[in-house]
Amino acid sequence: MTCYLLQLHDDALINVGEYVGTMYGPETYTRLGLTCQRMLRLLLPNDDDASAQTIQNIIRSRMAYALDRAQRSMILETTQNNLKIKSLKELAVFEAWCETPLRNDNRIPFPFASVDINESIHEKIHFIMKIMQRYPSLTVQLDSHCGTIAPNSVASSFSRIRGDSIKDILYDPSRVEVMGWGKRITSKVARSDTHPFGELAREGRGWVEVSFVLRDDDNRRTIILPPQHEFYNSDTTIADDMVETTI
Prior knowledge:
- Helices cover 49% and strands 13% of the residues.
- With 247 residues, it is an alpha+beta fold.
- Helix 2 (10-24) packs antiparallel against helix 3 and helix 4 (49-70) packs parallel to helix 6.
């Protein structure tokens, strides 16, 4: 919606206005013009404090509405305090994410000691690709983990292979980043009584977590959905062989 409004030519707006004026009278034509002006002030960057406050009000209202429609989100229950949305573009991505099953469970589980993708997760793959196609500037981060019983010598490389198996079937793999965590995160999750994936970790199984990342013009991350658990933030030492990307 935002991109479409900004791309409308003046001639197109005039034609729409003339049609509205013919059908509903000059007063409606005037109201339409004022509405378009207000929307453009919101959508285009500016330093107007009133516009900035209006945008924040829209974001708060739409976030509450999206969360209400999404009902209970198992992931956001533990990470919502880390969710900071500052722009209408970030809001649009958040609303699209809330409409998918990924809002409740963003993991792709794997059988024991396997890199095979189960047919049961095809629906999640469909929604991942749908959001990627809808927002071309969005990238995907795959945080890949292996089970706690995996040998230390192969844990990191095996988890990365799992992430790659997902990356290879996604729309536009060049926009996908794979992080191979080995069992560094799963070992912490297995000891947690509150983490949503705790039971899976205690079973000794691994998984891949799917996150959507939006960056600004300077390639700085502005938002990640869902927000990452504190276990990631506390593990700040990232080995070079953990990251594989073609971005």
